[in-house]
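Q: Hi! First time asking for a complex rather than a single chain. Here are the components, and I think there are four in total. Is that enough to go on?
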Amino acid sequence: MNVRLILFAGLRQAAGFKRETVCLPEAATVGELLESRLPGFLDRTFYVAVNEEFAQRDTVLQDGDEVALLPPVSGGELFPRRRSLRL
Amino acid sequence: MNVRLILFAGLRQAAGFKRETVCLPEAATVGELLESRLPGFLDRTFYVAVNEEFAQRDTVLQDGDEVALLPPVSGGELFPRRRSLRL
Amino acid sequence: MSAKLFEITKQPLSQDDILRRVSRFDCGGVVTFAGTVRGSTATDGGARETDFLVYEAYLPMAEKMMARIGDEIQERWPLVKGVSILHRIGRCDVEEPTVLIAVATPHRDDGCFEACRYAIERLKEIVPIWKQENWRDGEVWVEGPRQPELDVGSPDGLQG
Amino acid sequence: MSAKLFEITKQPLSQDDILRRVSRFDCGGVVTFAGTVRGSTATDGGARETDFLVYEAYLPMAEKMMARIGDEIQERWPLVKGVSILHRIGRCDVEEPTVLIAVATPHRDDGCFEACRYAIERLKEIVPIWKQENWRDGEVWVEGPRQPELDVGSPDGLQG
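A: Yes, that's all I need. Here is the structure of the assembled complex.
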């Protein structure tokens, strides 16, 4: 089955792409998608939405799902530190 | 000595005038001004400003002072009751 | 910015205007309170309708007291960088803002919410502005609750 | 009123506009929070300068989550009559508002301050919008604090 993967902000920048269609075995989970396509991301903090609803690592995917990788939203910190992703 | 008396809102309406110059003995107090000019008001709730600063009943007046009679300010009540001054 | 921070005016109030008055280069959060004319007020006896309000102020004392509230805020919330209070006088129609209060701080946790709330409560206590409520079959000058420490009319007022 | 209550837009935001969106005949108090672009931020290491921000959103999920905040407010503060949240995307310059949140209630004591405060905190938790900070010699996508219950990247995220 195919799912659409979308990345935003710092994750998009780190991955070097914004959208991609990924082919997965039937009933693959969010965790399996990440392990197969973005293993280097697994120690980062981010959230996943499947079809625009927050999902978890064990959420089971279906053909045609849109899976979005969402960094913690910006401005949440009252006193932001400047993180150096690209200087 | 002469002081200027100014009334606002419901007090002005009840007194039937807005401004008046009142002649008083030297060193008269706010209380003496009220007793001589508006004795009917003494059971009402209101505040007095002398030269635009809140004053008290025993504040001593000077020639040329402006004495303002101020009802409790409007809208202070979270759930206002409708008082019938003129219906 | 030359606009006054504490102003009584006959002109309609604008939230964009007050935001400009308090906006600062080093501020990221502004809280604005708008008091608007309610056309209908729920009461125990059913809805009460209002056609319009008329506001009257004691000038310039009213602006001086509004500036005093700004000073009080500065003392209580030292991180506050900007305060503005604008109040209309004259006739105000339903849904129009009659008072705007804006407070600017560097971050949203630096007191902008608390200071704005403080300002509207304090305004009702010490700023000499009154409203006349007008409805289909009458009108009345509305009086707020008594502040015993200010009252000189009744006997308690004898204590300074 | 046909304007949307929860909207992501490239257009400059107006506080007068959002006041109109939430104003109601039976409301007398509206609290608006404006998040504006700070040009200078005090830090332990001295002032940090910002030239401009660029915002990116995941649409339409962002608007859906903003509407969810409106529903949450309605549940927690049942006297609230109107909520609107507007957020810009694209480039925002210093002192411009990037987010506006307005909450209308019949009286100022009916939760408008508390609900507005809740909305901005909640927005930072669940609405997928990110900012890129741009300054003289660099740029960075700013990330907020971690919400453990949402995190799927790190091991804690395994618990659903």
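A: The mean pLDDT of chain D is 92. Let me know if you'd like any chain examined more closely.
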